Amino acid sequence: MQVLYERCAGIDVHKDQVTVAVRTPGRGPGGRDTRVRKFGAFYGVLRDMTRWLAAQGVTHVAMEATGVYTMPVYHALLEPGSFEQVLVCNAAHVKNVPGRKTDAVDASWLAELLECGLLRGSFIPPEDIKAVRDVVRYRRKIVQERGSETQRLGGVLQDALLTELREGAPQFSGHALAGVGTFPAHDRNGRSSAGSVVAGGAAARVA
After folding, report:
1. How many whole angstroms separate alpha carbon 10 and alpha carbon 199?
2. How many CA atoms lie within 13 A of 85 on its CB side?
3. Lowest-pLDDT range, 36-40, 113-117, 186-190?
């Protein structure tokens, strides 16, 4: 296939290490050479990787999206502004052929796809949009956790006979909620203040 980008790189990202494959003109198959090098995942080392890529004359870089491990690499590549394009690609779009997979093979495959213009990057939001999106996601998570904890508390109170059925569905009663703060860490056999809480709530409902 036609090579669109003469000097490009593919990066295989893992938690503790990144593997970089650089494709340049040379004497290899198809007149292309591949050079592979590995770097640690510390941000200072990633900056060294960026400088090395710039020294190789790389203009386009692509990596597979791997969650939180991708973003430090992405920011290290963008920081100096040395590259025309940095792509973070969906893993489903860059599947390799079946067979033995290694980090070097995956990185080389990304570089080969990139040089022919066959990769499409995922949307990476600007910092302000990312901040808003993180807050919204966190709020959604907290709301879900609150619902789960409410259901769990309802089960505890139901087991302690501190809830009442209203229209066929378990609901918190005022007596049950009032007793939550004073619920003791003892048994429920009438030998502790829990008995008085239950008895008091039952008496109030009878009255």
Report:
1. 70
2. 18
3. 186-190
Both 29 and 86 in a single domain? yes
Contact residues for 171 (Cβ-Cβ < 8 A; gap 6+) = 163, 164, 165
Sorted by sequence, the CB contacts under 8 Å of residue 48 that are 6+ apart come out as 39
List the alpha helices (DSSP H) in the chain: 43-55, 70-78, 103-115, 127-159, 174-180, 193-206
pLDDT (tens digit per residue) in 35-52? 999 999 999 999 999 999
Among 105, 124, 143, residue at a domain's last position? 124
Instruction: For 162-182, write each residue's pLDDT tens digit.
Output: 555 444 444 555 555 555 555
Q: Is 64 exposed, middle or buried (0-12, 13-18, 19+ CB in 10 A)?
A: buried
Distance CA(207)–CA(204), nearest Å, equals 5
Q: Is the pTM of this model over 0.70?
A: no
Confidence of residue 112 (pLDDT cuts 50, 70, 90): very high
Report the run of H or E that residue 24 belongs to, with start and end: strand 17-25
State whether 161 and 68 are in the same domain.
no
| Dihedral sign from CA coordinates of 15, 43, 115, 27 | negative
Judged against a pLDDT cut of 60, whether residue 196 lies above it is answered with no
Quote the domain boundaries for residue 181.
128-206
Q: How many structural domains comprise the chain? A: 2
Pick from 108, 124, 140: which residue ends a domain? Answer: 124
Indicate whether 76 and 91 sit together in one domain.
yes
